[in-house]
Write a structure and sequence with these properties.
The complex is a heterohexamer, with three copies of chain A and three copies of chain B. By secondary structure, chain A is an alpha+beta fold. Chain A contains three helices and seven strands. Chain A has a four-stranded antiparallel beta sheet, with helices on one face. A two-stranded antiparallel ribbon of chain A has the order 3-4. In chain A, α1 crosses α2. The longest helix of chain A has 15 residues. The radius of gyration of chain A is 17 Å and the shape is elongated. In chain A, about 55% of the residues are buried. In chain B, about 65% of the residues lie in helices and about 0% in strands. Classes of the chains: A alpha+beta, B mainly alpha. At the B-C interface, α2, α8, α9, α10 and α11 of B face α1, α2, α3 and α4 of C. The structure holds adenosine-5'-diphosphate (3 copies). One adenosine-5'-diphosphate sits at the interface of chains E and A.
Chain lengths: ~110, ~450, ~450, ~450, ~110, ~110
């Protein structure tokens, strides 16, 4: 089991979800984050004082999948989020050792989907 | 903007040099002033002033988080822009004596010259300065209403130019025709108590035409973008409702010569109430989910619809006008807009255009000489036949034509010089950050 | 709701058919109208109108995020519902001539018939239409106050029915008894300047009874659920305070016949100020944490307490009334409520019930014939003995009884037909989403 | 706070015991009362009242999330504190007959004794009670303005004490000198229509001195801390603007004796509008980012600058005053403040100090006897020479001196007894949690 | 050392915390997330247009524990969050390679508690 | 590749970012969280009722780095966030199995920076 963590542009979040659904990945957890990387920030101004802001709004997906779904998930995310411009984001795959479905107490591969 | 600013400066300097041009006379014909009427109109003016910030909240709550400041500024900045336009020449164009064969007012009030403590023919018991301020507040909110149609994509400097053009070429003439001395629509017998056509139809259709010209928001797919802050919407609607008492009752221009202020006060509140309930009922019938957004919207369209009729109809008619306006606008927004596929972001046309047209026509259906002797022909439902309805229709058509044509022409002209919309990238980032360099809310706790 | 809507429609149609039923007369007895008084009462009416949206914010800020829209709508929708009720029959029940041996007003003003520009016996210097509008605003906010007790669990359609029943069977008769022509409580000498019993005691106790009937919120464990937006609370409190100037000073119904408006204006502000400081002081003594919620609550209970007394007491008495009300309500909320274990969500009873009862009794302690000649017996502390206190007690008891019994009966009756509360699941989801299908704030940045 | 509370209580008790001390007379000289004027001044008073909650929002939106409630409470609580101070003795100090050789007013109005329905010399056509309430609202907002300088670090109990001292030792004498019967600044010919020096210069400089005494916020590094909620700022600015109509137009104290109310109404709105546009233009020139914060700030500094001049200058002059104030304040805030390195959190000095000084001087440049016969010497730009400018300068200097010295002295004195600032830890946690034990917004959805 | 990540219903968050405290797990990091899975969404309506919303509010716990506490943590979370209805949420266990306490600079098993 | 997760005091977040930039770590994802641990909470009061609140605002950093940067990242975070008072927070290091840059489709060590 793997945890696929993706950080994408806010405006791409919807397309990512659609792409995931299209490959039969329905379960995920989503949150607001701020990111910084190569993407240039923007300027805020406040009564004549101008400040550069580098942390930009991003959306973070957390998708736990069985091994066989990892590639599908990664491809779907890339498909939904890629604009070829700096700031498209990253995908990280982390190992999951165990998983439980709270409702049933099931664990392991069965619990993930 | 820079150039406009310089132009303004030079005008001001000019006025300072030409003695007396803008000096408001204080030696008013004090005898004619009624202090009760004056206090009343001062209040009414303040109330209508408050509607524009109210609209800023109403609209601001409805857009997405990334565009709230742009949306609010589009309304708020008009208090600045239109005030200066009005004082320099707008008031004169609208309320000066007929010029160019009645097309527009003369230039006698340029720079508010002579507009001071003495009363004028428009309102014999209050200072003309107050009358001019009262009318100013109408001039401010009218273009602000338009913004509801095209927010979330319009360029701000272009917007400033457009607003200035529009208020000068649409609002000022229309106000002259309907309310100005010898205005031809008024002479013809068109009834518009507080601005159903001048304010609502004109701005609603301008919004529609504008979005047809500039196109949809990039990510608009016929499903609405949900409000980011609904409590702001209710607060804005409440401020609008509160202000509307000044808008409609104040249009009687006093308390001493008639009881129209009270009549208009009652019909205004009753129509808004009926429309609120009616909107909630429609939502209930539709999907059993009455909403706060719906209650707020219902109230607003009830207020829009009663605006032209407020001082001409009975309480029962006001209830009917309110009850009917809600389903009409609901249908326009949830069916027509989707079917026709235009992107009227916050339903400026859906609420003010449709509601305003209905109100103007309803005035022809329900107007009652027993309520107001200015009504020469009873409405259709009171047995007066089709005459008044016809006149009302004509005034609607004239408004649609003038506002539609000027809006279209102005935008097409500007589009030759510069882009109307922000870049795709700026639209995605949100106009607050990309255009204004400010963010409405701080998200990170560190900030 | 659907059926109610149809009923409304048919009523309106009926009125349209019966000529004259609702036509407001414009041929007012203009000679008697004082424009200053009329302007003043127009303002006062607008101010009291604003209190209901103010209450919506005050309450809305206090609930949890998932219930804010339901809470706000419960107040806001009453502007619609009660306006229509009032215009159709409520005003007549409250202010028509005695019927049924003084239990209720007659039907002469159904559909606001004859309520127009001419003055009436209640207020000789302003149009009756304005008087009726002013009283309407009181009728709107009273049931809105009740909602503070039972929000976060009450079904919305049931709430609409309950509000309609309550305003008709509790508010209208009470208003008649205390303020109507020949009302028996007034005749008996009960003093209630601006609605201490009619508005605050009646709604406060209705809230208490309602929560006893419907029970606690599922997750209420005697610890408060913290406000989700405290700035809204302060804004709401400020709007209420602002509006209360209209509520209390306006209850003088004019400026020309007495200086009671000014007296009431001063005592109102002073009592609110004293109660705010006193609440902060109590918090300081208790745990060294004076709060903005506390300052806002203190101001409100100070305003509640002075309401019945505003035009009857001296400035010094107003300070005393304000200083004392804060600890009383503080104790009621932080001790009594917890001890007795009822779940008065936002302390409708704790603020309006307790504060209102104290205010009514305080009127019997501090009322002063030197301030207002309507005071026939000086208050206890001014050496007038127990008489006035007794009358005040009686009027409180009558109010508690009427409101308590009708509230209990109405809810129990409705409970036979349909559920009073939303399902456990809907309560957990939050009423905004489950009942109204809307979410107050957008959380995800994508939205 | 505890002790202060006890002191208050005993005062109240004292008044209750000394009969008549605080009883407001109702037997007013009714003949002299003009109901229109009275209605107008009632409205103006309500409007100025609303400015303080407006300021609470304006300031509250500007601070960081963790300090919003403290910031709002600092304004809001003054409605309580100053009301009680004013009623007990403040009004008497400011508007009583000259005592101590004109340094301060006498004690005849202690406890609002004799302040009731009858008019007084200050305003012959309205009840003195209303005049006193109107002036109260000015007394409330003045110290509230100061808080903008030192929020996010000042101890709350110390603040309460400071506010009480400041309003008594700075505001009351200043008001007496400028507006009181026989006030020496007024006698000298200083023109201050609605409080440019008394309100704005005095509070602005107090803010500057206070931050010099207490020092910077721990994490202030010459870059601004961005507002946490900009829509609140616009709403606050709109409430201030709305209220300012009462502030300036109301300073004519009526409608019947002159048309100054209308003149002031026009100049006020025009100056705010011009300053808003001018601020946006400066931002545009600077970095092409016109902001909503900028539009709001521009409007406020335009209102500040016109305050002393409102009833003395022409419309054209008002435009000029507004156009110039924005770049002045912009420069002060973005350059001077950074260069000099003081931490005026929300620019109380930058807006009210600089704008107020400019307004006072501008009155000496533009004042026009044709507008107001109280102007004895035309302004410099109207050919009247330097006389009036000199008098204005003197009144500014006197204000700077009095307010600066008392603020410095009071803070230094208090600092001997107790700390002025919260602990470093509390400052980091945020004052809302550490000082008030409340959190403005609930973040976790479980809450 | 393991990272126990749990996504639960908002209304269960308090019970989960109590249950964790009961087994002597006091340290945790909590955040708001939106989740979608099998649980049906709800309908939002906006001026007559009705839209289905699938992302529901959830609360995410992140609890770093030593091996011996993993089972206790999982059991406590299940106990606090289980309603037996769809939507109760998931628990994921991920490996932690190293852990530091910032205050002391300690690392490893000692740093976690 | 490792995922460095740090939970720090809100007021330290800026210093942490500066410290990371100083060691050439520019890319990161940041979010608001609430944390509880040993740090004492505070008291909230509501109309006379006083409640102890234990969840405090914290800021969470998520920084994916190659092995060679782990120590630098940890040291920088400690340097920026350490006040020696209870509540300074924790750093957790988790293994990353794979990483993708959405813009280019690159994967592995190259994609992380
Ligand atoms: N090493 C990293 N660790 C954590 N988050 C990262 C990392 N690299 C990128 N991100 C996230 O991805 C977002 C986009 O990265 P950026 O470098 O701007 O563009 P790109 O991925 O196209 O090169 C960042 O804002 C950040 O949230
Ligand atoms: N594979 C997954 N990856 C990430 N989050 C998940 C996953 N499965 C479930 N979740 C989270 O758990 C929540 C509940 O899941 P759901 O399928 O609705 O119910 P249940 O867990 O009872 O089957 C989801 O809203 C989501 O936040
Ligand atoms: N075992 C853990 N799992 C998850 N988060 C933790 C853990 N330990 C600490 N934290 C986070 O670190 C923050 C600080 O921890 P705390 O125990 O208060 O202080 P310190 O780390 O100085 O001992 C907590 O509020 C929490 O967010």
């Amino acid at each position: 089991m793997k945890m696929v963590i993706a950080v994408v542009r806010p405006e791409a979040a919807d397309a990512v979800r659609q792409a995931l659904l299209a490959v039969d990945i329905h379960k995920m957890t989503v949150s607001n984050v701020k990111g910084c990387g190569e993407q240039p920030g923007y300027v805020e101004s406040h009564r004549g004082i101008v400040v550069e802001v580098n942390l930009l709004s991003k959306v973070r997906f957390e998708i736990a999948v069985n091994e066989s779904f990892v590639k599908k998930a990664v491809d779907a995310i890339i498909q939904g989020a890629r604009t070829n411009n700096i700031g498209d984001g990253k995908i990280f795959v982390l190992p999951i050792e165990q998983c439980y479905r709270i409702r049933t107490g099931e664990s392991g591969n069965d619990a993930i989907g | 903007m820079k150039r406009k600013f310089l132009a303004l400066c030079s005008l001001v300097v000019a006025e300072l040099l030409i003695p007396g041009l803008a000096s408001a006379s204080t030696a008013g014909d004090a005898a004619a002033i009624n202090t009760g009427d004056t206090a009343f109109m001062f209040v009414a003016t303040g109330l209508v002033f408050l509607m524009t910030p109210g609209l800023a909240l109403f609209y601001g709550g409805m857009v997405r988080k990334k565009n709230v400041l742009n949306t609010m500024l589009c309304s708020f900045v008009l208090i600045g822009l239109v005030t200066i336009q009005w004082v320099l020449f707008g008031y004169s164009l609208a309320f000066g004596a007929d010029a160019f064969g009645g097309l527009i007012g003369g230039l006698e009030y340029l720079g508010f010259s002579g507009v001071g403590g003495a009363p004028c023919a428009y309102a014999a018991t209050i200072p003309q300065g107050l009358f001019a301020m009262y009318q100013l507040m109408f001039a401010i909110i009218t273009p602000a209403i338009i913004t509801g149609a095209f927010v979330e994509r319009f360029r701000f400097p272009v917007y400033m130019a457009f607003a200035l053009i529009w208020t000068t070429l649409v609002y000022d003439p229309l106000a002259h025709w309907v309310w100005g001395a010898g205005g031809w629509l008024m002479e013809m017998g068109a009834l518009d108590f507080a601005g159903g056509t001048v304010v609502h139809v004109s701005s609603g259709v301008a919004g529609l035409v504008a979005v047809l010209v500039i196109g949809k928001r990039k990510d608009y797919k016929l499903i609405p973008m949900f409000p980011h802050n609904t409590p702001f919407i209710m607060l804005g609607a409440a401020m609008l409702w509160f202000g509307w008492f000044g808008f409609n009752a104040g249009s009687a221009l006093g308390l001493s010569t008639s009881s129209l202020a009270v009549i208009a006060f009652i019909t205004t509140n009753v129509s808004a109430a009926a429309a609120m309930l009616s909107w909630l009922a429609v939502e209930w019938i539709h999907n059993k989910k009455p909403t706060l957004l719906g209650a707020s919207t219902g109230a607003i369209v009830g207020l829009v619809a009663i605006t032209p009729a407020a001082g001409f109809v009975s309480v029962a008619s006001a209830i009917a006008i309110g009850l009917i306006t809600a389903p009409l606008c609901y249908f326009g927004i949830s069916f027509l807009k989707v079917r026709l596929g235009y992107d009227d972001s916050l339903d400026a046309f859906g609420c003010h255009g449709i509601g305003g047209i209905w109100g103007a026509m309803a005035t022809g259906l329900f107007c009652d000489p027993a309520i107001n002797s200015a009504v020469k022909h009873s409405g259709l439902f009171l047995g007066g036949g089709l005459h008044q309805l016809g006149v009302q229709l004509l005034s609607v058509v004239v408004t649609l034509a003038l506002s539609g044509v000027v809006t279209f022409g102005a935008l097409k002209l500007i589009a030759r010089v510069t882009a109307l919309r922000v870049s795709a990238n700026d639209e995605i980032m949100g106009l607050d950050i990309s255009v204004h360099g400010e963010d409405a809310y701080r998200d990170l706790v560190t900030e």
